[in-house]
Amino acid sequence: MTDTLIASALAGFEGKFGYAATGVWSAPGRVNLIGEHTDYNEGFVFPFAINRHTFAAISLREDDLIRVASSFSTQTHEARVGSITKDDGHDWAAYPFGVAWAIQEMANSLLKDFAATGFDCYIESDVPVGAGLSSSAAIECSVALALNDIWGASLDRLQLARVGQLGENVIVGAPTGIMDQSASLLGETDHAVFLDCRSLESQSIELGFAREGLELLIIDTRVAHRLVDGGYASRRAACESGAASLGVDSLRDLSLADLGRAQETLDDVTFRRVRHVITENQRVLDTVAILQRSGPRAIGKLMHDSHESMRDDFEISVDELDTAVETAIRHGAIGARMTGGGFGGAAIALTPVEKIGEVSLSVIAEFEALGYAKPNIFAVSAAQGAKREI
Ligand code: GLA
Predict the structure, then answer these.
(1) Residue 350's closest CA among 131, 29, 33?
(2) For ligand 1, is residue 316 a contact (CB within 6 Å)?
(3) 258 flagged as catalytic
(4) Do residue 182 and residue 251 come from a single domain?
(5) Which of 9, 182, 227, 327 could lock onto 124 through a cystine, CB 3.0 to 4.6 A?
(6) How far is the CA of 338 from the centre of ligand 1 (A)?
(7) Residue 112: per-residue pLDDT
(8) How far is the CA of 20 from the centre of ligand 1 (A)?
(9) What is the residue with the minimal CA distance to atom 1 of ligand 1?
(10) 306 with 186, same domain?
């Protein structure tokens, strides 16, 4: 599959721009095993890079023009390297443009004689779009790694994760955290990334799913989720106002012991938003500890608790996600939860290999009975992070 997509990125580049690309860089999508809406609260997350990738075929130009094209749209988008701004007309190209802008911001502040020129870029991908699997971070990280190499920006992977986030915040206009880019850049085969979003210290933790006879199923509900819509930003705002009312810089500074005080101080909605973040941080720490001590079959309850917290306290689930989670568990999944920003997208179900058929068929049947669109169900495994392919 990878070879086919690399060949198609190279052929797409040549077809669009009339000459051969210098190289192809890839970056994976991600699933988050647990730790949702904790990243921008300086908390803990535990995602992993998946075996679905974006491939960016790129060549430098001698002028300052940037042209980006892709297999999923007929349009070629253009910008000038020194004057990239937020513009709704950029559409998906805002992701590579955002990265090109953010690398320059960072490299200019770190390097004495950094100079960027234009480039041509063609994107090919098998990360499903709108499923909460970070197709956008996969674009950002493949382009970030490529530009870092060909512009000689000398940024490390943590800085490149920040580049992706900064571009997304400023040029795309989505107030997202740093989890997705970190997973896409730091992922390792069969390991998840345990990241402290305050210190940015990370640790690779072995998952051992295959050894324990488990697969992680993605149940893409096909309810498209978009992070630029208001729901994500309003959750973030509620967390910030909750932290301010409780006199802390971020919700990371609170623990389970603060819940009583939070309930007395805050209105009901803000309290429940805050409670989700506080309890979710604890669930990430517990998941990592239990995984290491007792293996992946022991983390199912924490996954389900996380889902309930997102459904009832953070209120970012939808009926299709709740149905996917409950049906998967009823038919043999060890644990299940929605993953990613919410308001649609995918659920994950940690499932014994012998139960995959039953879980998949039952979810499809339940969706049909309820009149929902047919879900797209597939297994993913933990893969290596972004790299140069050729
Ligand atoms: C999206 C954002 C991440 C994170 C998750 C929720 O994926 O891009 O930064 O906030 O939602 O955990």
Answers:
(1) 33
(2) no
(3) no
(4) no
(5) 9
(6) 12
(7) 86
(8) 36
(9) 341
(10) no
Residues 224 and 358 in one domain: yes
What are residue 354's phi and psi, to 5 degrees?
-75, -10
Instruction: Clarify whether residues 163 and 229 are in a common domain.
Output: no
Q: What confidence tier does 228 reach under pLDDT thresholds 50, 70, 90?
A: low
What phi and psi, each to the nearest 5 degrees, are found at residue 226? -135, 125
Which protein residue has the closest C-alpha to ligand 1 atom 5? 341
Q: Contact, 17 vs 120, CB < 8 A?
A: yes
Ligand 1 centre distance from Cα of residue 180 (Å): 7
CATH code for the domain of 196: 3.30.230.10
Residue 227's pLDDT band (boundaries 50, 70, 90)?
A: low
Residue 279 CB neighbour total at 10 angstroms: 17
CB neighbours (10 Å) of residue 166?
Answer: 20
141: CA distance to ligand 1 center in Å? 15
pLDDT one-digit tens code per residue, 134-170: 999 999 999 999 999 999 999 999 999 999 999 999 9
Distance CA 166, CA 162 (A): 6
Compute, in angstroms, the gap from residue 346 CA to the centroid of ligand 1.
13
CATH number, position 315: 3.30.70.890
- Determine if ligand 1 sits within 6 Å of the CB of residue 341: yes
* Residue 307, ligand 1, Cβ within 6 A: no
Of 180, 220, 305, 313, the active-site residue reads 180
How far is Cα 283 from Cα 104, in angstroms, rounded to an integer? 37
Kindly state whether residues 116 and 253 are assigned to the same domain.
no
Instruction: Find out whether the beta carbon of 37 lies less than 6 Å from any atom of ligand 1.
Output: yes
Cβ–ligand 1 distance for 340 under 6 Å, the answer: yes
The encoded tokens of residue 34 equal 């647990």
Predicted confidence (pLDDT) per residue in 300-349, tens digit: 999 999 999 999 999 999 999 999 999 999 999 999 999 999 999 999 99
pLDDT tens digits, one per residue of 90-119 = 999 999 999 999 999 999 999 888 999 999
- How many angstroms separate the CA atoms of 77 and 56, rounded? 15
Q: Give Dmax (Cα) for the chain.
A: 65
Q: Is residue 301 located within the same domain as residue 239?
A: yes
The domain containing residue 259 runs over which residues? 214-380
CA distance 74 to 161: 29
134 and 82 fall within a common domain: yes
389 lines ligand 1 (CB under 6 A): no
Please check whether residues 189 and 81 belong to one and the same domain.
yes
